[in-house]
Amino acid sequence: MGIRFILMVNKQGQTRLAQYYEHLTLQERRALEAEIVRKCLARNQQQCSFVELWNYKIVYRRYVSLFFLVGVDNDENELAILEFIHLIAQTMDHHFGNVCELDIMFYLERAHFMLDEMVMNGCIVETSKTHILAPIQQMDKT
Questions:
Q1: Predicted model pTM
Q2: How far is CA 121 from CA 23, 31, 47, 99, in A?
Q3: Average pLDDT of each block of 10 consecutive residues along the chain (142 residues)?
């Protein structure tokens, strides 16, 4: 399957966006997010951006005040996922103009829509910023 979940978390550890591609109960999601936030946010910048937790490999990257965290299968390529995280950040920067935590909070449905355009059933299906943003720009026109 590949990607199991995508999280965006602020520096205080509050989840601002969560997109899951496998079924987890609410209690499992809370426990998973708490453990991920505790492990990833405590690491310094000299440490690598990969953490193994439960049966997932967590790949994360910090952009300004947001942490982008992606949970993948253990056999997934970490560098490819780092590039995917960079694509998410670039796409949101292009749309919002220097994306920040408030953009995610106020335009949560647009952020989810962008992720839906990029990932389907845990597989990356689109990597072109223009193709990802075209439907959103069409919605803005109406």
A1: 0.90
A2: 11, 22, 30, 25
A3: 91 93 93 91 84 90 91 92 95 89 90 94 92 89 78
